[in-house]
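Supplementary Text 2. Reproducibility record for the structural model of the 151-residue chain.

All settings were left at their defaults, and a single model was retained for analysis rather than an ensemble. We include the record here because the model underlies the residue-level annotations in Supplementary Table 4.
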Amino acid sequence: MRIDHLTDREKECLRLVLHPMRAKQIARETGLSVHTVNDHLRSARRKLGTNDSVTAAQILRDHEGHPPKDLGPIQSGWREPAVMLQAGGTEVARAWSAILPAPWKDRPWNDLSLRWRIIWPILLLGLLALGTGILVGGIAALSQLALLLAR
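Retained model, structure tokens:
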């Protein structure tokens, strides 16, 4: 079978794909560079005849016949569903981190939906226009005040 042609590093990277981990997290876990991890995953996909790493990892898992070993608590970066947490009697919505365009502790990369990728630039441009209008209005008011005081 083609699985016999996989190197130990390729197998290790495929096992970590099922945790689920992305290439950057696999690189941190294994001490490799992201490019090396991507090369290992690409090579494993080619050897197993698949187009995606998850399918290749499932083929490896099925061939090995046992569940992947437990690595303990790993920060996978996959977003948990929006839940309400009790924090000192005050409810805090974690749903905000799902729509903000900046990385957060529970979401280290930008995985915004297409809708939010369109809305955020429009919102930011609107806020920029509002801020510019306030600034120009303030400067105009100050110049009028300076003209009145100069008389």
